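pls read this protein.

:::
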Amino acid sequence: MSSLLTLIAGLIFLMIAADILVRGSVSLAERFRVPPLVVGLTIIALGTSAPELVVSLQAGLAGSGGIAIGNVVGSNIANILLCLGLPSLIFATAVNATGLKRNFSVMVAATILLIALCWDGTLSRLDGGILLLCFIAFFVAQILVTRDSRRQQEEIEELRTNLSPALAALMAIGGLAALPFAADFVVEGAIGLAEMLGLSETVIGVTVVAVGTSLPELAAGIMAAWRGHSDMTLGNAIGSNIFNILFILGVTASAVPLVVPPDFLHYEFWAMVAAALVLVPFLGMRWPIGRLGGLILVLFYGGLIWGAVALPGA
């Protein structure tokens, strides 16, 4: 019963924190003429990736390279298929924002780079440094994009926000700070329920832990979709995946070298690639991801998770 109450309380806390985060971030974006896509790719993506950072870093320091890398891989799959699929069931996600294809290409490139660095069975400190350098380059590029966007929108006079800059900043920071704590409650409650039901550690790790650390992205995506900011939903999903690979694994591998279990090269890495490539038709044809598209993403996620659990050697 306590696990169920913890899970319910965590979910409520999570949605409230995500709503505060989205409202504050959108208000700041409008106030300073920053496109919501850029906000999703940077500020929200960094904040909602905090659970993955904590879990992966702790696992790496404890000598569990499989958990450290698996957390990121599983979260990246969930970010695209669940955190984008479920919000699209509420409100169609537009795919025509400026720079979206460019940032999607960065995400795919980061995924391929990670696989290449892990091919020898280890993610060394040098590999971690390479990932961090790529992250710095990506972040600087986003700053430059923000500067150009502000120049292009200098003539806009009317603002839709009714929040003061101080209140908007406080809401954004408060939402970012609260999301990881709320996610911890949800994960703790979910693991307790899973253990009560007799589920194996493998099932718990592939589903509960990976989805649990992606709950901030999911909550932020749902609230952004609910408020009509679908470009922020997609930007958050793509940005979080970039942050997970380049920043989180970069920091973790720089702190302690990680041993890559062979299973990842047999299935999990390629499942992550497949999850990313499923967006190609939507981006190429500029198709909004509506209810049918969202349903396809969610069902695809279920199939990939079933493969991770059921296939031999996966």
Observations:
- The chain has 14 helices and two strands.
